[in-house]
TrEMBL record:
Signal peptide: 1-16
Name of this chain's protein: Acid phosphatase
UniProt cross-references to InterPro entries, sorted A to Z: Alkaline_phosphatase_core_sf, Phosphoesterase
Matches recorded under Pfam families: Phosphoesterase
Length: 397
């Protein structure tokens, strides 16, 4: 153990000595760049806007592995918080990264406890099914993903931060939740909505950014391979100017800036999360909200806003899926008051039973068909689903 700690300290010291300095990957967020490798594949089609009760566009931006107290004292985040609502009791679902991403669009991480390559079967639904059922458009924008719908485990390219250095892996599959679900990757029209940042620039300039978006910066800009100051520089370059661009942020846009998980596994998994955008009421900007939320709350909030169905998983877990308060107050949704010792511990890793955990394996089950979601719609049942496969009928792990 002492040897491991010494090696870890040495590696950290070497990394610190070689830590890269932020450089703009493009001249501006609305400009294409050779640093993104893949050329734009045209733009998404223009679609009719489906009006929501509180917002018409929902964009979430995920950063990496940072404790709440670290982010909350960083200058860029302090300044951004003046423009939005800081959620002081928002928690990730587990450790490490990938299960949090998977859970945020599917309502479960299915016991996953690592960052390996997984393929979740086609009969397991996601938020994409709920959105498409109501004609709400969507996209995933992945910085430095080489081509639309790329299914590779990662992508290594010339190092734009240091052209004399070896090639660098800027893109990883584990931060791209949509490619983990076969219900998305098996449908060509869905696959083309998993796009890179050159596509983002094209969609932005054509004013066709969809109504629901998932944005993942590359491994240096999201703080995974760097630190919170590096990510802050990226936010100043990318997000701050976009807040003034009506093609990205208008008066019916809600932006969620969050992290996948905290860095310190020994404490509960509280993460810094900020609500921004024109949909945030003026009188609430610069305030805090101490309601208990998790990544499942992004699902329930979207369901509540557009009157969607549900997935019958974590998005209908009353404890863990409170709707963002300013939205719930506007729609009349009743949240569950969770605080103090009642807040669940979500900092465990690899010990949750599920079909993606070989140590505690149970098969994929059907969703809870009797669940009641924040959108009021019925539970989505994917084709080919065996409804007899319920948690109550399965043997122990």
């Amino acid at each position: 153990m002492l040897v491991y700690a010494a090696l870890l300290a040495l590696a950290s010291a070497v990394f610190a000595a070689q830590a890269p300095k932020f450089a703009k990957p493009a001249s501006a967020p609305d400009e294409v760049s050779a640093n993104y490798v893949g050329e734009t594949n045209g733009t998404l089609p223009k679609a009719r806007t489906v009006s929501g009760k509180v917002f018409d566009r929902f964009t979430q931006i995920w950063l990496e592995n940072t404790d709440f107290d670290v982010a909350s004292t960083t200058t860029a985040f302090v300044e951004l918080a003046k423009q939005g609502i800081l959620l002081t009791q928002y928690y990730a679902l587990t450790h490490p990264s990938e299960p949090n991403y998977v859970g945020a669009i599917g309502g479960d991480f299915f016991g996953m406890g690592d960052d390996e390559e997984y393929h979740i079967p086609t009969n397991i639904s996601t938020v994409v099914d709920l959105l498409e059922a109501k004609n709400v458009t969507w996209a995933s924008y992945q910085e430095n993903m080489p081509t639309d719908g790329y299914l590779g485990f990662n992508f290594t390219q010339p190092n734009y931060l240091n052209t004399s250095a070896p090639p660098y892996t800027y893109y990883v599959r584990k931060h791209n939740p949509h490619v983990v679900y076969d219900s998305i990757t098996s449908v060509p029209s869905r696959l083309q909505r998993i796009r890179n940042f050159n596509d983002f620039a094209a969609d932005l300039n054509a004013s066709v950014i969809p109504q629901w978006n998932f944005v993942t910066p590359n491994l240096v800009n999201d703080a995974h391979d760097t630190d919170i100051d590096f990510a802050s520089d990226w936010l100043q370059f990318w997000l701050v100017p976009l807040l003034s661009n009506p093609a990205f942020n208008d008066n019916k846009t809600l932006i969620v800036l969050t992290f996948d998980e905290n860095e310190t596994y020994g404490i509960n998994n509280r993460i810094y999360t900020l609500l921004l955008g024109g949909a945030v009421p003026q009188h609430l900007r610069g305030t805090t909200d101490a309601t208990y939320y998790t990544h499942y709350s992004t699902l329930s909030t979207v369901e509540n806003n557009w009157g969607l169905g549900s997935l019958g998983r974590g998005d209908t877990n009353q404890t863990m899926s409170n709707v963002f308060s300013f939205v719930a107050n506007a729609t009349g949704h009743k949240n569950l008051n969770i605080s103090g010792p009642a807040i669940p511990l979500t900092n465990a890793t690899a010990d949750i039973p599920g079909p993606l955990n070989p140590e505690f394996y149970v098969p994929f089950t059907a969703p809870n068909v009797n669940a009641s979601g924040a959108g009021g719609g019925s539970v989505f049942l994917a084709p080919g689903l065996n409804l007899s496969m319920q948690p109550s009928t399965l043997p122990p792990p």
